[in-house]
Specification:
single chain, 676 residues, Rossmann fold, seven-stranded parallel beta sheet, six-stranded parallel beta sheet, 21 strands, nucleotide-binding, hydrolase, RecG/Mfd, DNA repair, isomerase
């Protein structure tokens, strides 16, 4: 029966079947998996325990003939008296005159509504049919078209009787026992017809685990299949020489950096092609890890490539890597502004294998950029490049290892879920001696004081950023707003202080020029839209003022704040904001309380939800029926651990995992997804 069309259910015709199809219900068994989206808990309470204005469910005997009063067009007021024990209670129903014939004196009724303790009156939202007292937990379903909740409940009830026994168990017995969760059939019954809050809780636990385990199994399956297809270039390098370089560094790696480095070096030495995300907060020391990995690659006789989103960032990386590795490797820079003979010579040397490491922008993916033996690609701020651009660079080598880097901390729950088919390494501690940025939240009436403080910082030889707010989705409005702030600051600051302007409408060359002037302290105050969010390293900048800070998400505010505090001087971030909502006020408070990007990303996830975190279109996050990524992160960790073991130990081929395996292989995600 489970695979029969819904038209086999009494009272479901072709037209109804079409409407059910809009809800992805085509077969009788589909009704079993159309879960309630919430529950109404109608707990019967004595009148003495109901608070004034509380929505409550009461039960009493109808003591008077109901009276209907009509007023206005299609408006009515139905009243009657109930007796509950020795108390007379007035029941008022608005626009429910059709209930008049159901309120029969002497019979018991159950009603839910808003309780008025002073008047001993209930304003009824819902009249419950007879026998309701046995079902105090009422499921609420989403419906489409003309289908009503009561019809849906009736058909689900039919499906439970007709087809529940055909539902196969997915999970081996050991999981049910270990996690104390009900079997699949029982969990389906309880989710639709819960006997109690406790039984519903256990059914929900079962579905949360099942949904997350299935998704994680698919991710692990994809990863395993990819690794089969992704034989990498094993990097055999002189470990003594690499360790000598690490020991020569003017600082010691943190425990977190050491752990992450070991993960990356293990990948480089393995036969499988690396696909790893290295995430770490601004200033956590990702660049040195990248440098060591690139040096190991060069020691193995292979070339490395580092791709970054902007020319000035490429130049800064080239400068820092030159100072670290210049006496050991041949390092070259390739950007769009390097043209003619100079460019041709570099490309020729690259193809001949004379360049160990090439650093650049999109110029790295041009057709004429040909490597001799590309072994490792590092893509910085990987979210700034499209899938196609990343793929083009990857195709420059035979099977190069790929390391993506990001300073946008991804909450653990999302990295486990959205990046389930990619390895994730996290630097979660800061190098010692780094001075935390002091963050303050102020109102606009303090602007004069803030500008005086900024002037003092500049007179002490430092620089400042002034960030203008996002205004709706209009780049034009953002621009005019930035120009206005720029003109005000120019008028306010002494002539000796140069104010610069940066915005998205500038030509890339003009942007580079403004940033270069700022980096060299030719500009002391840089007024900008959010285009500086990812970018240059200006250790001399010690202050940032963000106008309209309530308009930004926590992750973006944190990224912006990371532009200061890069030198040895104390730095400040001033959030000028007047949030109108509780959520907005909470965001500002959180920003002043912590500088930990991972802590902020978890807050952001709670406030905005997983879809908004990546942007719904590219998040790739599944729609779960019961599981919630922000609430169920512990279950997610357990599901991931179990999925890794099931796939790595090949348990999926065991007889008791048969149904799980069939479920995985039938999923379009497995059939269509390829390694990008």
């Amino acid at each position: 029966m489970i695979k029969e069309p819904v038209t086999n259910i009494p009272s479901v015709g072709d037209k109804t079947a079409e409407q059910l199809q809009l809800m992805n219900i085509e077969k009788v068994g589909d009704l079993l998996f159309h879960f309630p989206f919430r529950y109404d808990f109608h707990e019967l309470k004595p009148l003495t325990e109901i608070a004034h204005d509380e929505v409550a469910t009461i039960q009493g005997i109808v003591a008077s003939q109901p009276h209907v009063q009509f007023y206005g067009r299609k408006k009515s007021r139905l009243t009657c008296t109930l007796t509950i024990g020795h108390v007379a209670v007035k029941a008022v129903f608005f626009n429910q005159n059709f209930l008049k014939d159901k309120l029969i004196p002497g019979e018991q009724v159950t009603l839910t509504g808003k309780w008025d303790e002073r008047r001993l009156q209930i304003t009824v939202h819902k009249y419950h049919p007879k026998g309701f007292e046995d079902q105090t937990i009422q499921p609420v379903y989403s419906t489409k078209g003309n289908i009503t909740t009561n019809q849906l409940k009736k058909w689900i009830s039919y499906s439970l009787k007709a087809s529940l026994s055909e539902v196969e168990e997915l999970l081996p017995e050991q999981y049910l026992k270990e996690y104390k969760i009900p079997g699949r059939q029982q969990a389906i019954r309880e989710i639709h017809q819960p006997r109690s809050k406790v039984s519903l809780k256990h059914a929900r636990r079962r579905w949360i685990y099942e949904e997350l385990l299935l998704f994680q199994l698919k991710m692990q399956w994809i990863r395993k299949e990819n690794k089969k297809r992704m034989e990498g270039l094993v990097k055999k390098y002189d470990e003594h020489q690499l360790n000598k370089f690490i020991q020569s560094l003017p600082f010691q790696l943190t425990n977190s950096q050491q752990r992450v480095l070991n993960e990356i070096l293990t990948d480089l030495k393995s036969e499988s092609r690396m696909s790893r995300l290295l995430q770490g907060d601004v200033g956590s020391g990702k660049t040195i890890i990248a440098a060591i990995a690139l040096y190991a690659t060069a020691l193995s006789g292979q070339q490395g490539a580092l791709m970054v989103p902007t020319e000035i960032l490429a130049e800064q990386h080239a400068e820092s890597l030159q100072s670290l590795l210049g006496d050991r490797l041949t390092i070259e820079l390739l950007t769009g502004s390097i043209k003619g003979k100079k460019r041709r010579e570099k490309l020729e040397r690259l193809q001949n294998g004379e360049i160990d490491l090439l650093i650049g922008t999109h110029a790295l993916i041009q057709n004429d950029t040909v490597f001799d033996q590309l072994g490792l690609i590092i893509i910085d701020e990987q979210h700034r490049f499209g899938v196609e651009q990343r793929k083009t660079l990857r195709d420059k080598g035979v099977t190069p290892d790929v390391l993506f880097m990001t300073a946008t901390p991804i909450p653990r729950t999302l990295s486990i879920t959205a990046l389930g088919d990619m390895d994730v390494s996290t630097i979660d501690e800061m190098p010692s001696g780094r001075i935390p940025i002091e963050t303050y939240w102020v109102k606009e009436n303090m602007l004069e004081r803030i500008l005086n403080f900024m002037l003092k910082e500049i007179q002490n030889g430092h620089q400042a950023y002034v960030i203008c707010p996002l205004i709706e989705e209009s780049e034009q409005l953002d621009l005019s707003n930035a120009i206005e702030v720029y003109e005000q600051l120019q008028a306010w600051m002494p002539d000796s202080i140069k104010v610069g302007l940066m915005h998205g409408r500038l030509h890339p060359d003009e942007k580079e020029e403004v940033m270069r002037a700022y980096a060299e302290n030719e500009i002391q105050v840089l007024v900008s839209t959010t285009v500086v969010e990812v970018g240059v390293n200006v250790p001399n900048a010690t202050m940032m003022l963000i106008y309209g800070a309530e308009r930004f998400g926590l992750a973006q505010l944190h990224q912006l704040r990371g532009r200061v505090g890069r030198g040895s001087n104390k730095s400040y971030c001033i959030l000028m904001a007047d949030p109108k909502t509780e959520q907005g006020r909470e965001r500002m408070s959180v920003m002043t309380e912590t500088t930990d990007g991972f802590e902020l990303s978890e807050h952001d996830l709670k406030l905005r939800g997983p879809g908004d975190f990546f942007g719904k279109k590219q998040s790739g996050l599944p729609e779960f029926k019961v599981a919630d990524l922000t609430e169920d992160y512990r279950a997610l960790e357990v599901a991931r651990k179990d999925a890794v073991r099931i796939i790595q130990d090949n348990l999926i081929e065991e007889p008791e995992y048969r149904v799980l395996k069939e479920m995985i292989l039938s999923d379009p995600l497995i059939q269509e997804r390829i390694f990008d």
